[in-house]
Amino acid sequence: MSAENTIDHLLDETRRFAPSPEFAAAAIARPELYEKAEADREGFWAEQSRELLHWHTPFTEVLDWSNPPFAKWFADGELNVAYNCLDRHVEAGNGDRVALLWEGEPGDSRRITYAELTDEVKRLANVLTDLGVGEGDRVALYLPMIPEAVASMLAVARVGAIHSVIFGGFSADSLRSRIDDAGAKLVITADGGWRKGKVSPLKTAVDQALADRGGQGEQATVEHVLVVRRGENEVDWDADRDVWYHDVVPQASAEHEARAFGAESPLFILYTSGTTGKPKGILHTSGGYLTQAAYTHRNVFDLHPETDVYWCTADIGWITGHSYVVYGPLANGATQVLYEGTPEHPEPGRWWDVIEKYGVTIFYTAPTAIRSFMKQGRQIPQARDLSSLRVLGSVGEPINPEAWIWYREVIGAGTTPIVDTWWQTETGAIMVSALPGITETKPGSAQVALPGISIDVVDDAGSPVGNDAGGLLVITEPWPSMLRGIWGDPERYKETYWDKFRDQGYYFAGDGARLDEDGDIWLLGRVDDVMNVSGHRLSTAEIESSLVAHEATAEAAVVGASDETTGQAVVAFVILKENYLKEHGPEGLAQTLRQHVSDQIGAIARPRDIYIVGELPKTRSGKIMRRLLRDVAEGREVGDTTTLADTMVMSTISAQVK
Ligand code: WT7
Questions:
Q1: What is the per-residue burial (b if ≥16 Cβ within 10 Å, else e) of 481-491?
Q2: CA of 407 to the centre of ligand 1 (A)
Q3: Are 259 and 160 within 8 A, CB to CB?
Q4: Which of 28, 40, 378, 497 is at 20 to 30 A from 413, Cα to Cα?
């Protein structure tokens, strides 16, 4: 083990939560799942795929890894992804089951059954064909969280085209570069969507994205823009290019036969940021992706489709929205909530109102949201009836034990299992997680690789670190929902993910992790968020977790700032809890918190500086942009803030620090 990748400290978390005997007895996932996968990994995936999906042409091959790192799964099989998510449930007699319980931000709502959603998607598929969209064509989606967004993804899939969903919060510029990179033929958007009580003008951004062309060789590939009416706001109209959804979809035929496509047909491209400025178009294909999305959704969330009401709060603009709002849940015939707006509109308890209204049983959200609820205080969720909840999930970043416990106690009535799910845009579906009826959970640990998935923690040379040691998280065997590449850039795909451990053939995830003495996995943040203080490796996540464990702290971000004596020094940005501030005031707190970290982790981790701030700089997906905090901590001009959800945050923080 090389010195660089030893994580020297890890919070000592000893609390354990086993599933109740009742939960375990009724659980979907059984311990045999691990044994089966262990005995014959490929056979296991083949069985899952046959059980969970309908194959128009059954596959005879499972994995083809003859040309690594380009995998093929179930390659000689044929299926239609939309048929799997829609028609087959109707054909099985479940057409009347509700697919979507949609809640608009202004308070309007719609219940859409599987039969109705199938009908809508068939009409829309006919419209796409009329607009010239066919197999392999790219369609860009820039939509709010409305049922038409789900229908659009499925209709694109149904005709064998490829969607590229662009999060509605992205600017016209980002939209344009993504449309151009993929060479989209059609854009589906809306006049506007509701966010925080206002209509965000989506169509206007599309118009700008398609107009701002000057450079040489920039070909406008977009032929049409299909526009859903939602915001009822004024829009400019290009009569040759633009088509109202409501003018064509209801009029289109509801007859549409789902054609079968090869298992490796591309299903979607989803752009994600890498270490360079240019976003990467992560490419996913059909059969393997849908297999793992359905398998993980069913087993990790213990889905009982006849009785559960599932809600994942992610936007469809992110991978979580693809795999756990659209493909996993619909392939499994789930009934789910789809909510258009933000958690605090018209008031902070809106999410809890939605859970109470629809009787949500399975709830999947992000630690950043949980911590912001902690900050507002438990009286808000406690004023609602959340007793329907029975499984809680977390995704996106390490969940600190403090937030984990709060989630379980305050939202889960102290009884619900929590599944902390580790995965990435690139992995397509969950890779590491507890199984709620089996695993004895540890707050803060993502725990174990799912059955069928092979994960390890290795040192810089690729050797396993073994238990009770830290290193780099790798995936050691190909998995069905793995990315098949970066759109248009196979070299970058190899370099980014496979070069580091080329000899071993491991996929390098970019995350630091530690195995505890039981072999359970603790994610420690991106490896570039690992600091080196006086020759000791420290994890930003670990110190953040310690800070947030203090009763005064709502949220914390830690960066390693360069320091003359120690190499790097720990600098923390802390948001305090409103209730605590009211009672105690901020006096002496920075010192108290420094001592607290020192007591919890050791003097080496004691922050050199603690800044009390009101907000942290986050991307639209909720990730803290530590690069910008490092600029502040090192007294530099703050760098590029264009990917922040709120670009004003950095000037506020800089002012507070001064
Ligand atoms: C990165 C992937 C996967 C959907 C949302 C984010 C971090 C994700 C966890 C978790 C610790 C996590 C990792 C990963 N991450 N889930 N449960 N525990 N870290 O997708 O934008 O592709 O980001 O998010 O650092 O590499 P993404």
A1: bbbbbbbebee
A2: 19
A3: yes
A4: 28
| Residue 119 and residue 190 in one domain | yes
pLDDT digits (tens, 9 = 90+) for 10-66: 556 789 999 999 999 999 999 999 999 999 999 999 999 999 999 999 999 999 999
Rounded to two decimals, the pTM is: 0.86
Both 497 and 622 in a single domain? no
Average pLDDT, integer, range 441-457: 97
Instruction: Determine if ligand 1 sits within 6 Å of the CB of residue 422.
Output: yes
Instruction: Please indicate whether residue 300, judged by its CB atom, sits closer than 6 Å to ligand 1.
Output: no
Number of domains in the chain: 2
pLDDT digits (tens, 9 = 90+) for 280-292: 899 999 999 999 9
CATH number at residue 174: 3.40.50.12780
**Residue 513 pLDDT greater than 90, yes or no:** yes
Tell me the pLDDT tens digit for each residue of 265-283.
999 999 986 555 467 899 9
The answer to whether the CB of 509 is under 6 A from ligand 1 is yes
Query: Is the C-beta atom of 621 inside 6 A of ligand 1?
Result: yes
Same domain, 499 and 540: no
Q: How far is C-alpha 186 from the chain's CA centre?
A: 25
Least confident stretch, 126-140, 410-424, 582-596, 635-649 = 635-649
From 165, 268, 271, 395, the mutation candidate for ligand 1 (largest count of ligand atoms within 8 A of CB) is 395
Same domain? For 477 and 580 the reply is: no
For residue 217, give every residue at least 6 positions away whose Cβ sits within 8 Å of its Cβ, in sequence order, or none: none
92-100 contacts: CB < 8 A, separation 24 or more? 94/333, 97/305, 97/333, 97/335, 98/335, 99/330, 99/334, 99/335, 99/336, 100/147, 100/150, 100/336, 100/337, 100/338
Q: Whose alpha carbon is nearest atom 13 of ligand 1? A: 397
Closest ligand 1 atom to 399 CA: 18
Q: Which of 456, 479, 511 is the last residue of a domain?
A: 511
The whole-number pLDDT of residue 244 equals 98
- Take residue 206 and report the two structure tokens written for it: 């599309």
User: Are residue 136 and residue 207 in the same domain, yes or no?
Assistant: yes
* CA-proximal residue: ligand 1, atom 3 (nearest): 424
Task: Check whether 9 has a pLDDT greater than 70.
Answer: no
In whole angstroms, give the CA distance from residue 504 to residue 525: 23
| Residue 112: domain span | 6-511
Whether 447 lines ligand 1, by a CB cut-off of 6 Å, is: no
**Residue 506 domain-assigned (yes or no):** yes
Closest atom of ligand 1 relative to the 510 alpha carbon: 26
| CB 529 less than 6 A from any atom of ligand 1 | no
Residue 199 has φ and ψ, to the nearest 5°, of: -95, 120
Tens of pLDDT along 75-87? 999 999 999 999 9
- Are 291 and 326 contained in the same domain? yes
Is 397 near ligand 1, meaning CB less than 6 Å away? yes
Same domain (yes/no): 330, 299: yes
Q: Are 511 and 368 in contact (CB under 8 A)?
A: no
Ligand 1 pocket residue status of 398, Cβ below 6 Å: yes
The verdict on residue 1 lying in a domain is: no
420 lines ligand 1 (CB under 6 A): yes
Inside any domain, residue 518? no
Q: How far is the CA of 472 from the centre of ligand 1 (A)?
A: 14
What are the tens digits of pLDDT across the range 386-418?
A: 999 999 999 988 888 989 999 999 999 999 999
Instruction: For ligand 1, say whether the CB of 530 is within 6 Å of any of its atoms.
Output: no
Distance of CA 554 to the CA centre of its chain: 22
pLDDT for residue 309: 98
